[in-house]
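Subject: design request, 84 residues
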């Protein structure tokens, strides 16, 4: 299974939803709290080109935020990406 990385903040309801969806797939993502580290925020901005959280990566593939993750799952693409 591919490594999943999720950039989050402490009080983000979309981050919680994304982690819940991933958990339902048996995935424990590497969670990086961007509030705790300006360096991690800069890393997220460089990788995603976005300022909002969550930002989710499956391997090196940028999925996007929670809405993007949920849409990918509804279309049946998340399982395939996780197991690629």
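Subject: RE: design request

Done. Sequence follows.
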């Amino acid at each position: 299974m591919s490594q999943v990385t999720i950039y989050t903040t402490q009080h983000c309801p979309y981050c919680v939803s994304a982690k819940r969806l991933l958990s339902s797939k048996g995935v424990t993502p590497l969670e990086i709290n961007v509030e705790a580290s300006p360096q991690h925020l800069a890393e997220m901005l460089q990788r995603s080109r976005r300022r909002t959280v969550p930002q989710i990566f499956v391997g090196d593939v940028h999925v996007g935020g929670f809405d993007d993750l949920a849409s990918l799952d509804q279309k049946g693409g998340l399982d395939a990406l996780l197991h690629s």
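The first strand starts at residue 4 and ends at 8.
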